[in-house]
Amino acid sequence: MSTKPRVFVTRRIPEFGLKRVLEATDAEVWDEPLPPSRDVLLKKIAGCEGVLSLLTERVDAEFFDAAGPQLKVVSNYAVGFNNVDVPEATRRKVRIGNTPGVLTEATADLAFALLISAARRIVETVKYVQEKHWKTWEPLGHIGQDLCGKTIGIVGMGRIGYAMARKCHFGWDMRVLYHDTRQVEPADRDLQAQRVDIDTLLAESDFVSVHADLNPSTKGLFNRDAFRKMKRTAVFINTARGPHVIQKDLYDALKAGEIFAAGLDVTDPEPIAVDDPLLTLPNCVIVPHIASATVSSRNGMAEIAADNLLLGLKREPLRAWVNPESGN
Ligand code: GLV
Ligand code: GLV
Fold first, then answer.
1. What one-character DSSP code corresponds to residue 189?
2. How far away, in angstroms, is 13 Cα from ligand 1 center?
C-alpha cells in the first residue's frame, strides 16, 4: 500500500504542475473534459488528504463531510474562490489555496480585447463578412466608439483592475475612475486615477470594466438601474464573475440601446444557457471564460496550485493562502 497521501485532482491541468503532484502523491486525476458529477466528486474525495479543485466544484460543508476529517488542503486552480465556503474550511482547519498574480496581465489583456471588440464591433462585422454581406465601403456603416482619451471606470481596483487601468491610461490616454472599498495609492499616484462612488463612475465613464471579487455587496450590482445610469454610448465589460450582473437587465439595456455594447468573459450560469437571449444580440461579445487561457498563465497557475497542494499536505504555509487563520 502506498504511503503517499491520497489526493484527487478534479481535471487535467498543465504538466508543469501536475507532474509534481503525480510524483509526490497517490493522485487520481479526473481525465474527462467535463467536471465529475456531484455524486462522483463526493465519492472520489472520500479519504483524500488533498484535493486540487476547479471553479466548477462547490467546496462546502457537504464536500468536507464527504472527504472526511483527514482532509488538509483544497488547492483551487483559480485566483477567485467564490466556489469555496472559506469560513467552513477554516472551521475545519482545511487550508485553501488560490493562484493569484500569474493571470493578472492575461486577464486585463482579455478585458481590453473585449473592450476594443465591443466598441469597434469586431465580432459583428467579422460575421458580416463571413456571411457575405460585404458589398461596398459604407460611409455610415459599422460605426463604433473611439477609445483614445475616453474615461475608463474600473469596478474593483485589485491587481487585475490596476493592470487594465494601466493599459487604458498609458496605451489609450484614458482618464481612470475607480470604485473600490479602499483607496489604491499606486493607482492615484501613477495613473492619476480618481476613486469615486459607484453612481459617479457609472455616469461619467465611457467604459465600465468589472474586476471585483464576487461578494454580497457586488452580486447583482449591474442591474437595470445601473445600466440606466451609464451613458448610451457606454461599453460594459465583465471578466470577473457572472453573478455581478443581472443578465436579463443587461439584455434589456443592450436591446433598447440604453448602452452601446458589452463584452463578457463570464456569465451566469456557466456555460451560458443556449437559449439565453444575450446570444442573439450583435452588440454583445461573449467568450467562454478564457481570461487566463495563455501559456504562461496556465503554467503559472499549475505551478502555484501544485505548490499549494503539496505544502498543505505537509501542513506548511501555502504559497498563496486564502485562509491563513486555518493553520498554525
Ligand atoms: C478564473 O476566473 C479565476 O478565478 O482564476
Ligand atoms: C486578482 O488577482 C486581483 O486582485 O484582481
1. H
2. 14
| Residue 267, ligand 1, Cβ within 6 A | no
Evaluate if pTM is beyond 0.90.
Answer: yes
**What are the sequence ranges of the domains in the chain?**
6-102+295-327, 104-286
Distance from residue 310's CA to the centre of ligand 2 (Å): 23
Closest C-alpha residue for ligand 1 atom 1 = 78
Q: Which ligand is nearest to the CA of 293?
A: 1
The answer as to CATH 3.40.50.720 being correct for domain 104-286 is yes
Per residue in 19-51, pLDDT (tens digit) is: 999 999 999 999 999 999 999 999 999 999 999
What distances in angstroms separate CA 34 from CA 53, 56, 164, 238, one per listed residue? 13, 10, 31, 24
Q: Which CATH architecture has domain 6-102+295-327?
A: 3-Layer(aba) Sandwich (3.40)
Q: How far is the CA of 187 from the centre of ligand 2 (A)?
A: 14
Q: Is 34 left (phi over 0), alpha (psi -120 to 50) or beta?
A: beta
